[in-house]
Amino acid sequence: MRQAATKAGDTEKITINLGYVDLGHIDLLVSEGVYANRSDFIRTAIRNQVERHADVTRQSVARKRVELGLRHFRRADLETVQAAGEMLDIRVLGLAVIAADVPADLARATIASIEVLGSLQASPAVRAALADRLR
């Protein structure tokens, strides 16, 4: 069963290098209508491999205490952390978003470390402020 198409804003673009024979196999499957396009084939192959190794992922996520999916950090969230005199150790598998209105000094004052397996969306100023804390 195929999953519904993903919106462009919900994806991250990556580049891969393939041998000509592998690329030819993909193009053949596309021309035969098995897949809509090269991207459809590659997404399906990746999902199959992720599912194949699901036990390893589950164990690692539990061991490393990683949050799965989307984690959004709003300015108000970080201000609450700062008021409590606390610091965050952020670990996300998926997408971590630090809101655009979060000033760099607030991010630095409240985020002790950040590790994102997937994608981090943050302003250039916040990324610079947290550069030494990114893993």
Automatic annotation (TrEMBL):
GO terms for biological process: regulation of DNA-templated transcription. PANTHER family: BLL4998 PROTEIN (PTHR36215:SF1). This is CopG family transcriptional regulator.
